[in-house]
Request: fold
Amino acid sequence: MSTELQSFIQKYDLLGCIQCGKCTGGCPVTVRTNLNVRRIVYDTLDQDMLDELAKLPEIWDCTACNTCTVRCPKGLKPAEILIGLRNILVESGEIQPTVRDALESVFLEGNPWDKPRATRSDWMQDLEVKIVEPGEKVKNLIFVCCTIAYDPRVQAIAQSFVKVLNKAGVDYGFMGNKETCCSSEVHNLGEEGLFEMEIEDNTELLNSYDAERIVAISPHCYDAFKNQYPDLKAEVIHYTQLLKELLEENKLEITGELPQKIVYHDPCFLGKQNDVFDEPRYILNHIPEAEIVEFERNRERSLCCEGGGGRMWAETESLGERLAEVRVRDAKELGVSLLAVACPFCILTLDDAIKAKGFEEEMRVVDILEIIVDLI
Amino acid sequence: MNNKPKIGVYVCHCGINIAKTVDVDAVAEFASHLPNVKVSREYSYMCSDPGQLLIKEDIKNEGLNRVVVASCSPRMHELTFRKTLAEAELNPYYLEMANIREQCSWVHEDREKATEKAKKLVAAAVYKARLLEPLQENEVGVEPATLIIGGGIAGIQAALDIANAGFKVYLVEKTPSVGGRMSQLDKTFPTLDCSACILTPKMVDVGSHPNIELLTYSEVEDISGYIGNFDIKVRKKARYVDMDKCTGCGICAEECRLTGRISSEYEVGMGNRAAIYLPFPQAVPAKYTIDPERCLFLTRGKCGKSPKCVDACAPGAIDFEQKDEIVEFKVGAIIVATGFDVFDASRKPEFGYNDYENVITSLELERLVAASGPTEGNIIIGKGRKGEKKKKKDRETFTPKEIAFISCVGSRDETVGNEYCSRVCCMYTAKLAHLLLEKIPDANVRVYYMDVRAFGKGFEEFYDRVRREGVRYIRGNPSEVFKRGDKLVIKAENTLTSTPIEDEVDLVVLAVGLEPRQDAREVIDLLRLSQSGDRFFMEAHPKLAPVDTATDGVFLAGCSQGPKDIPDTVAQAKGAASSALGPLSSGKVMIQAQIAHVDEATCRGCGFCVETCPYTAIELVTVNRVGHMVSVAKVNEALCKGCGACTAACLSGSIQQRSFMDEQILPQIAVLGGM
Reply:
């Protein structure tokens, strides 16, 4: 046990913590849960408490927005420490059935949604989609994301992307049913072993294509490939970066007018964690007649929607208003009709919040791709 | 070598530092059998007086002509033992040291192996000692003048000390006035002295001292030479105002078409100035300067029918034809006192400094509380900085009631690359909090902190006082500031109660840290200074040579070397001044003896050494080699620091460093490798 503790302390550099409280101070969920990440970091120094800490329900409240990690003045990764505790629980087998099912589904079917691999490309029906095979040369290898592939609400993102790619004459290719979960959420759910295995398999698969770059539609896949996969040969970009490039090179033109007020919500995995703030705004600002406004809390200070960190599968207790609801309330105050995002998880959480608040009449949440597909 | 080597070997115990790990007796015994060794002894502390006496007596009685001391690093005591040899009338360069402490006993645990290694080190030293040659140190004269770069409190204090000792000082300041950061402060901690009241007399003194030549609005362009003999070139930028004619009356600035429309550097954007300006009322010299980047006449060639400043100036001091001027002079020593930059708060976007008018930095608050400041000491938010962009009628000003300080902004923070503590923020925060309570008695002032560092004289007492006056200290490092309605929300945690907080306030003051200057690179290039890990200029030794640099004759003072408060800055400035006065008052300096030397007969003049030398001490010269004019390397003995870089670069082995000649070190290496 002492070597295990040693490795926990060393792995997470726990002795570097000065207990300044910036992590808990910046944590978006503190207003509605019992999670106090600073306190947990402090307690993890005691080896006898690790198992007990791993059983705290609030460790599942973390959305992996990573605000704590981005701002830690000593370079620690508090969010990863929570994931380390989840890992202890996963190892002990005492996890919620929903989490267990999601992990099993990734292992068996390559997605966390308990869907058959064979139906991964069903969203492509009636669309002209270029599929590439391993070994084939392609400039932009598109990575769809499990949620976008299977969830009927967000399949439209990928469908819109195909239309945009075709219209702009982009050299691209999809992987079809070969595409397998990036496992960002496997990591966040604490299943380290499966995550490592998926990194290996996915690296081999992705490297088998002669691709110049991998274009991820979801910020979660984008972040995983960019920051957790050390051996990918291709460059990894997010689709908003590709769109900005196409607009700059005049390969894509947004001509349709959209006389609506739009606010953009920064997904944590795109903005805070990877500094992609300007590209989505650049695209929106190219929409004729649209009025683009900003949330009070935007860019580095954007408020998390609570869609990440395994929260799609882990049940948590809530003591207050959901952050997504706060977000749509703020959007309503701004008087917008469209709440634009660039992330499937943000769409799902914000959509729910709009329904919960009864704002369906006033506003819709849409992905940037869904907006521009009708305007090109 | 006129006589056969007779070597004395002295193995030091260094208390138990060496003796604990190395069998000192065995090493001494071993050494006694080495070739040419006449005596071999061990002693508890060779550097002590009795230890040195041992060597001196052996030289006298045994006729020793070489000495090997096996003890600590030569960096520690080489000079000590050279002196010992000299006192016994033996050339001090007949000394060789074997480092059996840092390179042996301190880094090993196995006594047997450590003893074996110590023996090898001693044997290697003995083999080299046999081949040592006597060297002479040369003496050069010292120009009795000092260049001081930077006219803040450090530069001012050093200038006054040197000038008062009777030596000439050239004080070069980049901006139009001396005074530096201290002139921007209202009160100083912990005594609450009025900053201007204690600084202004010193500024006036440097302005009028017969030994000080003040070069304001000037920049050092070039430095060459070496200790005692530096050649300096300074650019005096055109002020477009004749210094002799300007009376400092200020009517020009009142008349300037841009009066009140240009953000004032001195007021850090909280107040405005004209295109012709005096940085602040007590500026020295009290002469106006035209901002060439903003002046309408200088930028567009036209300012109404005629420039209003020209019309207003009765003595006719405005001179748009004025050009930059290059001034050249010689000095014997240089003091670098270039100061610091204030951390740019926009690099912490989570605090909303760029977004909200009522998020301000501590220096901006300093100007607000100053009676001489843009609000005459009233705490009015909404007039300055971002207010500038707004139309006048839209400006709303208010006096804040709920006020929070955030500590350590840009300090102790790896995310912005500043691991260090800025040392002044805790105390200036306490001071500003105190002043705020004085000005707004019903205000609620709190300080968010990680640790309070009140380490100086009177600091803890002041911190106690401020807390008892009602300033609340909340332990937590805030993460974010955003707006909710009219209020700013600070998102933090009270770590003492484990309570997450959303604290609603009217004013957030960011206690910004100190950083190396953006233009530090220019000074580094001029003087070949080094930087420590924190990017401030590096002193020669953190403890024992805190104002010296790796370049002889160049000294550091103030915050260019690292963040410090005013008392420490003044103390260091006095230290730098006294160090500079050493060579100035002795009038001569000794030049390194262990320097590079060229064998002209074999040098091919390829110039690799010239390129390699970090001190520009080598040049190629033409010599007559049996009737042929050939190019060979020549070492400037005053500039050479004996670093050995050229020796390593030389392809033909023609350039050699004295005391480290190939024929001297090869036997030494052979011993270490073999045996």
Chain A touches chain B at residues 18-27, 30-31, 36, 38-39, 67, 70-75, 296-297, 299-301 (CB under 8 Å). Chain A has three domains: 2-92, 99-246, 252-372. The two ends of chain A are 61 Å apart (CA to CA). The longest strand of chain A covers residues 137-143.
